[in-house]
C-alpha cells in the first residue's frame, strides 16, 4: 500500500502542475485538443484524490455496523474513478472533438501549446516511470497484464493505466497539433480530441472491469485454494473439506469460510480444538487471511445407482 501511495502522490503532483497550463495554452491557441487534455489532467487530479480517500477510508477500524471492516471502500472508490475517466475525461473529450470537427475554429499561435505539451510529456512520463517501477516490485515474475489481472490493489494499476493513457494522449495531441498547423486543417485538432476521448473510454472500461470484479468479491487464487485444502485435510480430525469460500475484503484482508466434515468419532471438544488448529495454521502461513470461519458439517457417503460408486 505504501508503494501505491507513492505512485498516487507523484501522479497528483504531475497533474496539478500541468492542468492549469494546458487550459491557458488551449485558450491562447484555440485548440480543442489542448482543452481536452486540460480536462483530462483535471479528471486525473480528482481521481488521485479519490484514490487517497479510498485508501484512508479502507483503514477504518471494524465497528458494529461493519464487523469485517471497511476494506472494500478502496474498491468502491476505484470503481468511481473508472466511471469518472469514462464520463468526464472520455465523454467531454469526445464531445469537444466532434464539435470542432463539425465546426473547426481557426487555430491561434501554437507556440505555447508545444511548450506545455513538451513539459507535460516530461512530467507525465516521470510519473509513469515511478508507477511502473513501483508496480514492477509486486509483479513476482508475472507478465504485466497477468499481474494487473491478479492484483488485488486497484490503486497500483489505476495509476499505471492513467499515466500511460496520459502520455499516449499527449503524443496524439502533439502530432495532430503539428499536422493541423502544417496542413492548415483546423479540423485535425478536433480529431485529436476525439482520439483522446476514445482512448480514455477504452482505458476506463478495462479499469471498471477490474474494479468491479474486486468490488463484487474476488476470491483467493487456485494455488492458494489447493494449499488451504491440504492444510485442512492433513489434520487428523478431518474427514474432508467440503466447501471453500473466500473473498478479498481489501488488498490486505481476506475472508475465508470453510465447511469441513470431521470424523464421526470426534466429540465437540475435539472438533473445537481441530478448528483452532486449522485456523492458526492457515493464518500463520497466509498473513492476508485475517478472517477464518469454519463450519462443521456431516459428510454422508451415498451410492449412485448409475455408476455403482461411492460419491
UniProtKB/TrEMBL annotation:
It comes from the Bacteria. One of its GO terms (cellular component) is membrane. Its main location: membrane. One of its GO terms (biological process) is zinc ion transport. It holds the Pfam family Cation_efflux. Keywords: Membrane, Transmembrane, Transmembrane helix, Transport. It is a multi-pass membrane protein. The chain crosses the membrane at residues 7-28, 34-53, 74-95, 115-136, 157-181, 187-208. The keyword Transmembrane applies. It is found in: Membrane. GO terms for molecular function: monoatomic cation transmembrane transporter activity. Residues 10-216 form the Cation efflux protein transmembrane domain. This is Cation diffusion facilitator family transporter. It comes from Mucilaginibacter auburnensis. The lineage of its organism: Bacteria, Pseudomonadati, Bacteroidota, Sphingobacteriia, Sphingobacteriales.
Amino acid at each position: 500500500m505504501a508503494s501505491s501511495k507513492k505512485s498516487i502522490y507523484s501522479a497528483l503532483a504531475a497533474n496539478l502542475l500541468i492542468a492549469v497550463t494546458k487550459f491557458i495554452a488551449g485558450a491562447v491557441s484555440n485548440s480543442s485538443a489542448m482543452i481536452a487534455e486540460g480536462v483530462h489532467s483535471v479528471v486525473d487530479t480528482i481521481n488521485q484524490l479519490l484514490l487517497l480517500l479510498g485508501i484512508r477510508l479502507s483503514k477504518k477500524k471494524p465497528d458494529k455496523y461493519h464487523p469485517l471492516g471497511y476494506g472494500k471502500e478502496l474498491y468502491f472508490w476505484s470503481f468511481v474513478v473508472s466511471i469518472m475517466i469514462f464520463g468526464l475525461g472520455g465523454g467531454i473529450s469526445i464531445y469537444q472533438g466532434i464539435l470542432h470537427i463539425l465546426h473547426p475554429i481557426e487555430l491561434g499561435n501554437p507556440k505555447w501549446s508545444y511548450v506545455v505539451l513538451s513539459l507535460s510529456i516530461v512530467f507525465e512520463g516521470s510519473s509513469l516511470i515511478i508507477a511502473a517501477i513501483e508496480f514492477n516490485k509486486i509483479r513476482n515474475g508475472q507478465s504485466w497484464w497477468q499481474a494487473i489481472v491478479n492484483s488485488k490493489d486497484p490503486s497500483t494499476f489505476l495509476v499505471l493505466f492513467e499515466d500511460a493513457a496520459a502520455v499516449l494522449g499527449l503524443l496524439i495531441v502533439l502530432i495532430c497539433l503539428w499536422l493541423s498547423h502544417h496542413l492548415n486543417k483546423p479540423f485535425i485538432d478536433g480529431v485529436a480530441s476525439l482520439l483522446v476521448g476514445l482512448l480514455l473510454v477504452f482505458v476506463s472500461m478495462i479499469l471498471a472491469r477490474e474494479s468491479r470484479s474486486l468490488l463484487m468479491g474476488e476470491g483467493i487464487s487456485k494455488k492458494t485454494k489447493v494449499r488451504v485444502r491440504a492444510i485442512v485435510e492433513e489434520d487428523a480430525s478431518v474427514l474432508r473439506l467440503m466447501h471453500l469460500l473466500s473473498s478479498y475484503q481489501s488488498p490486505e484482508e481476506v475472508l475465508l469460510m470453510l465447511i469441513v466434515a470431521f470424523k464421526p468419532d470426534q466429540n465437540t471438544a475435539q472438533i473445537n480444538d481441530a478448528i483452532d488448529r486449522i485456523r492458526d495454521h492457515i493464518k500463520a502461513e497466509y498473513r492476508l487471511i485475517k478472517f477464518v470461519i469454519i463450519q462443521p458439517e456431516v459428510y454422508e457417503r451415498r451410492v449412485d445407482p448409475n455408476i455403482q460408486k461411492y460419491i
